[in-house]
Amino acid sequence: MLFKFLHSDCPAFFQQLAEIDLSISADTEKHSFIASLEGKKIFSLRLPLFYPTLIEKEKLWQYLERVSLQETQDKWTVLLMEAGRAAIGISQDGRVIKHKNIRKYMVRKKNGKAQLTHLKSKGKSRYGSRLRLREAEAFFDEIIERLQSDEHQASSHIFYNCPVRLKSCLDEAGRELGFNEANFTWRRLGVNVKEASFDELKRHALEPYYCRLTLEDENFRDRLPPIPEYKKY
Asked: pTM of the predicted model, to two decimals?
């Protein structure tokens, strides 16, 4: 069972959670806390994306003592990528205030496979393949150049959604162009994205504000503090 609620309800709820008899430990990769009892997973708690970074295996009560949950970030970069198509925007107060769509010829029309994937088995001797490779390089370079702009450098967070392969290629392009990824906190959007488009940027503009609690054992709900109700931002 999934519960979703606003970051403003998190501090009080988290404090009550930390006081119950459960082992609630951090999962840094998923920006989450996992609760278990006698080796059985009870629930996972995906924090609002702009919340401070967790330390591996720290307990919820330790996290609450270490950080402040009252401060909010209200401006960040959102990056959606698929082969040959990207949407990059700046979101503030839950609205996309600026965006850019990027498109390049990276997909083989015959079977819809991205050239980066095709090259693993077929090589790059034909003109079409070489063209798609050049377009792929230009694709990642343009994204990095936009991230290096003053507007995006003013944002401390980048929330992204893309296949692992594309993220690796973006990282490689960033190293070649002298882009310092460490200037940002990178977090993956834990939602289903239909396509890399402006409409999807708008649809997920509020996602960083929400906490997601997934209850694995519904029989345990009565032992939890009252779960905040979902409220539209």
From this structure: 0.83
